[in-house]
Amino acid sequence: MTVYDRWRKSRPKPEEVTCSEHRKVPTSDHGVGDRWQVRYRDGGEQRKRNFTRRADADRFDATRKADESRGEWIDPRSGRTRLADYALTWMASRLHKPGTAERYAIIIKNHINPTFGNAGVGAIRPTAVQAWVKQLQVNGLAPRTIETIYTIFASIMRGAVRDELIRKTPCVDIRLPHARKTVIRLLTPDQVASLFKAMLPEYAALVLAGSGSGLRQGEAFGLARDRLDFDAGMITVNQQVVVIKSRPTLGTPKSPASVREVPMPAFLAAALAKHIAKYDPPDVLFRTGLRDNLIRRDYFNAKIWKPAIKAAGLLPDTTFHDLRHSFASTALAEGVPISEVSRWLGHESITTTVDLYGHLVPEASARARDALDKAFRTALNVP
After folding, report:
1. pTM of the model
2. The domain containing residue 14 runs over which residues?
3. Do 33 and 134 fall into the same domain?
4. Number of domains in the chain
5. Which of 92, 102, 121, 239 is the most buried (most CB within 10 A)?
6. From residue 63, how far is each of 56, 90, 226, 252 by CA, in Å?
7. What is the per-residue pLDDT across 147-201, written as a single tens digit (0 to 9) for each?
8. Is residue 225 one of the residues assigned to a domain?
């Protein structure tokens, strides 16, 4: 027997006085708290749960035994763990880089905990998750930002399932706002040259690093002298500038695929050599003026990049990443295989490169038509 009556003794002594109402011997808990108690073992530990009605206790006990026999039993009390508390456990277990960990912590604090932080992980339902996603959109967040926030939340809930706090995740059939496809803005060589001339001299070579080697902004900020092979015309990319606790620092690139060697065309080599000769940096090529710090992206974009693109006559929303797009499009237009371009860009999958730049591969459609015509011309008797 696993369901017990807390108010009555199951094995009273002969001399004990019975209750006048029920003709049973009362316990010391008679009339105090819920009457019916289910006792069970979970992970080798004795557990118990009380119920007001016998039917509820029997139902819980039957469900528990059925789940246990299928290997699906999870103590409902585990689901009472606050999401904010479990998120800390989840974060501590992740193999995130410091910068990523800091960004995730901010997202959890600002966007997840305000809605779900005090809720037990077992009390969160799909409808509540969908309503939360909608509210993020109402609050004016961009679709891709919402996708990032939701991805982190869904990962936390999968962790709760894995740790057996809940049986299944509430992140089921959740609809996210449609994110527009990335707009590829390409700068012409003349526009790149104009931007190069409009930049402050100590940062001008950064423009050519983006357009000539396809470096990401953080990778360009982390470019160092010992990563440049002028004889081979190659650049080794194995570090970038990241911001941790509001301070820029050198870290590893975005992903394992981002550690790579990229070509250094002659015009970029000349610009970098001139920069080194003029400023004689001991290691990292580009730093802020007076304090000689590594460059923060927000500072650079606001104080250096924005004035330069305005002076160059470019659109106000032109970004450093547009230089990277221009590098990829130029290489593809000149017939460089897309597999090579993908490797130079540091994409983990060539699919990413094809999705972004596949339409820029020159004459691809014409080559496909010629190949198909040649294959079927004889069989179909067409000229």
Report:
1. 0.66
2. 3-73
3. no
4. 3
5. 121
6. 11, 29, 66, 50
7. 999 999 999 999 999 988 888 899 999 999 987 776 778 898 999 999 999 999 9
8. yes
